[in-house]
Amino acid sequence: MDIGKNIRIKDIAKLAGVSVGTVDRVLHNRGRVSDEALKKVTAVMDQIDYKPNLIARTLGSNKNYKIAALIPDPTGDPYWAQTNLGIIQAQAEWAQYGVIVDTYTFDIFNKDAFRGLAEEVLESAPDGIVIAPIFYHESLPAFELFQNQSIPYVLFNTNIPEAQPLGFIGQNLNQSGRVGAELINLGQHESGTFAVLHIDEDVHDSIHLLEKEKGFREYFQEHRKHKFEIVDFILNPNEPTFKNQLIELLADDTLKGIFVSTSKGTAVAASFLEKYGKKDIRLIGYDLLEENLKYLRSGIIDFLINQNPKRQALLGISHLVNHLMFKKSAPALELFPLEVITQQNVDSYLGSGIH
Amino acid sequence: MDIGKNIRIKDIAKLAGVSVGTVDRVLHNRGRVSDEALKKVTAVMDQIDYKPNLIARTLGSNKNYKIAALIPDPTGDPYWAQTNLGIIQAQAEWAQYGVIVDTYTFDIFNKDAFRGLAEEVLESAPDGIVIAPIFYHESLPAFELFQNQSIPYVLFNTNIPEAQPLGFIGQNLNQSGRVGAELINLGQHESGTFAVLHIDEDVHDSIHLLEKEKGFREYFQEHRKHKFEIVDFILNPNEPTFKNQLIELLADDTLKGIFVSTSKGTAVAASFLEKYGKKDIRLIGYDLLEENLKYLRSGIIDFLINQNPKRQALLGISHLVNHLMFKKSAPALELFPLEVITQQNVDSYLGSGIH
DNA sequence: TTTTAAAATGTGTACGCACACACTTAATTT
DNA sequence: AAATTAAGTGTGTGCGTACACATTTTAAAA
Questions:
Q1: For chain A, what is the total number of helices (H) and then of strands (E)?
Q2: What is the pLDDT of residues B312-353, one digit of tens each?
Q3: Candidates B345, B347, B350, partner chain A, best to mutate (most A CBs within 10 A)
Q4: Residue B95 gets which letter from DSSP?
Q5: How many Å apart are CA B157 and CA B316, to the nearest integer?
Q6: Phi, psi for B192 (deg, rounded to 5)
Q7: Which of A121, A232, A355, B253 gives A196 a disulfide partner, CB atoms 3.0 to 4.6 angstroms apart?
Q8: Cα B114 to chain center, whole Å?
Q9: Predicted TM-score (pTM) of this structure
Q10: What's the rounded Cα separation, in Å, for the pair B283 and B197?
């Protein structure tokens, strides 16, 4: 291995017996180059392993990139607040590289407002967009707009197969449900009932939640050691019937475990288990939200599956910057590991700067 | 927020009414600067938020950094092979920035050879060192050598409190044992026996393994719901008595679970459980080694705690590069999350490029 | 006061790449 | 054959920082 200096364009030029300008034209195939010169340069290129100095390249173009982040309003919403933290961290991390991240938030109950927002974003002419497209139908026209203006965009949190983004960052929801099933099933030696709860103020992403339930049920079909009954509920905590529905569920003495498909719903379910002294019912939910941590530490919640909303946002922006600034491509599909959080390992996650 | 161009040294100079050279001297406090000039520059610095352009800075210094990685010989050792993979990945990742990583391997049974290696490494005059210091006593003089030559070094895998490295990358072993205890205890409703096995060809890091056991036992002292007996063994698979010791252990009908403190030992224990049809005994071990994955998928192993040797090495080198090249400091203590791996989430870990 | 040293400050260049522009040579047109 | 256009090629500059070196200013010594 030759340890010395890296090969520069200048070196290629010298080896090929042409000027740096010609090499530059060959490398980026711009301008015109004679067949003869082209041959000489490509001959050298085949011989050596030229790796452009990304630092120098970036310094030269030295643009100030503007990135737009579209997420649901994080105010009073612990899940999207985590996402927002990821955006803020990305902002701080990339600020010194001249990257500016503008966050645009929308009301998760107001689909119409979302339509207008996409246009508002475009007016600011961003160089790239990261978006958590929780509205399926309303997102499609937005993507078309982005595509027309050829603005690269990255999806996270919710995947939309019809879109053609730079990449998607999230988790395999079906497999996530299977993990939930596996954890709820562990060490259960008697038959009984498991409940799947979709607790959400809104139903916009119920499709995604149902994907988790599908995985959950599939697991038990493949591992039918004991006879388990699985019941499922789609609950809205704002409905007056909500409380009674849960109480009725808890009254079932055969209930062995509860799998909550939403992060916010997890704490709600936990509060009921605590209130009615049902500590022995295994509870599995999502995400390291403050409330959830409290119940995890007190033993009400047994497992949390970490969706890592913060890092999803952080990585989404990093992908975009790598694409824009360093012309580095990232995998189109970045599926995060399905992290299992328990009382004993939760601190190791909270302490780790990466997560 | 002012979106325009970032503030450059040139701008500070103009605002302070001095030259860029003076600003440079103030920023890096080199050379002499008059009180008056110092005051003018610091006054401007207080006003504005100057963030040096790391790209330009790096381009200028444009050195070829040489990093030495000291690890146990990965040949025929799946754990250190993972570590080696991390080094190779780091190599590829940083190659275009002019970073060269030289790997020095040593025999885990030959402490004397290790002493010589440290000197050999120093002869190559590396700019930084990453090291997995599995020999406690033999490492100390090596660190002193590094310190004397003021070569920055990063520890990973094994922490040595007496050392003064740039940072340590690893896990909290006590807490790791607690996680093992928690997982082995989950859903166990009858009293019985748990075994802690330290299966290792060598005893050099038994101190560290015992730290895991300590955490394991502490967990049960704090959560004494049922009456559990905990037995522990330090076993060498090369000893002739090894097989019988394990068979004897498995003959105990009250045995509910086994916690293996080493990654290689995990597969060994699994093979015994499989051979003697003791599938119901809960088995918890370490790391995503090929062998372990096989037993995890077949259900012999119930949980693996991921120590992520690959990423430990990768991150160790990244820390060093950030320090050398970008003058960015990293946390002195990077404790990885204690990742719980199960049959259902293992693929999400293997598929993820980050892990 | 002049000389000499020290302190303070300014100027210039390299780092590697991208891109603008000027220049040379060859091919057409007038 | 001269003038014009096009094709091909080389030169030069900026990006922001770091650092070497030249230059100016100030203080101390002769």
A1: 14, 12
A2: 999 999 999 888 887 777 788 999 999 999 999 999 999 876
A3: B345
A4: G
A5: 10
A6: 175, -160
A7: A232
A8: 20
A9: 0.88
A10: 11
